[in-house]
Amino acid sequence: MGILRKRNLIDTDIHDILCNQRRRHALNHLRRRRETVSLAELADAVAEQETGQASPPADLRQSVYNSLHQTHLPRLDAEGVIEYDPDGKEIRLTESAREVEVYMEVFTRYGVTWAEYYRLLGTVGLCVVLLATLEMGPFALVPPVVAVTFFLVLLAVSTVYQLVTRRHVTLRQLFG
Fold it and tell me: Which Pfam families match (predicted)?
């Protein structure tokens, strides 16, 4: 691996890094693993993401391998986001990757931002509680306290889910 370095990335650098889907898939895999991975493992994981198949075609895996090795990993290494050893074919995230992770964490797995999700949850919750309080339609059967409790539990479960899936970022923010 190369010399450990910390570089402050600017928004345009981060945008340029994340504008390529293959680089995003590679970074996501490295974030999940949190350890040094081989180029072969990374290429397989990225090819699986691109095809949605557990065993993508060999020619695609080879194409991903070559593009990662020749283009994407050297670029990420030059930006200081990863350390890439082209001889040993090993990759690991650097501390500078945290700057990029912030931009990657904005969206849920389904392409909706967490802000949109919580706004929708709050709006639906308030509407259901209001309709239950006014005893309108089928909501007349639901006591308002049950509706409030349901949405509070849903909010708590959603928050715990988000914290658990982002635990590495959350722990770093809490404990430095």
Answer: DUF7344 (PF24035)
CA nearest to 92, candidates 44, 142, 29, 149: 29
Q: Quick: pLDDT tens for 138-175.
A: 999 999 999 999 999 999 999 888 777 766 555 555 66
Helix intervals (H) in 54-104: 58-67, 73-79, 97-104
d(CA 22, CA 112) in angstroms, rounded, equals: 20
pLDDT band for 113, please (50, 70, 90 cuts).
confident
Q: Which structural domain range is residue 124 located in?
A: 114-175
**pTM strictly above 0.70:** no
Token pair, residue 91, equals 């990759």
* CATH classification of the domain holding 65: 1.10.10.10
Beta carbons within 8 Å of 127's beta carbon, 6+ residues apart: none
Q: Are residues 98 and 19 part of one domain?
A: yes
Q: Are 84 and 74 in contact (CB under 8 A)?
A: yes
Q: Which of 89, 49, 88, 50 is nearest to 66 (CA)?
A: 89
Q: How many domains does the chain have?
A: 2
